[in-house]
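Technical note accompanying the year-one report. For the benefit of new consortium partners, we illustrate the data format agreed upon in the data management plan: each record pairs a sequence with a structure-token string. No post-processing was applied to the example shown here.
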Amino acid sequence: SGMKNVRLRTYKDTGTILVDDGLIEADRLDEAADVQAQTGYSMGRALVELGYISEWELAKAVAKELGVPFIRLKQADVLSEGCQRLDPSDMHQHLFFPLDRFDTTDTVVVAEPPTLDLLAKLTPILGERVFFLVSLISDVVRVLEQAVPLDAEALEIRGNYTSAEEILSGFQ
């Protein structure tokens, strides 16, 4: 039918999943939101950096919520050509990348549930169907840094790493 449809659906956001699963207290979301605003990190990454949850707990909760498998990523030579059609800074901010395309289905690795905003961006670029896999934040970050490194200017825009660390140290 030529209808490209990644079935834009809302997923529970990371904070809701973690609170529902009893993994964090709701009031910690406020602190994480402050870190998020100042660093450009995702909610999950902010919570992990603050030490409120391990990235393994986060990945397990997200995989369970999305009903998809968890994978460890060993190296970056696995990236699909879909990466070339996506904005690297989007991939770094939302911690995701297309891994593979088989037939009309794209496999996309995420560290957190995709936002509607992100799905809307992916729809024109990816295949008719998208299958998510969940991985650890550090695995996704490592692959992205090797495969689609951000230039200095892009890092500047999303708050460079030192400033993110300085901000986080203020929360300890």
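Partners are asked to follow this layout when depositing records. The mean pLDDT is 82.
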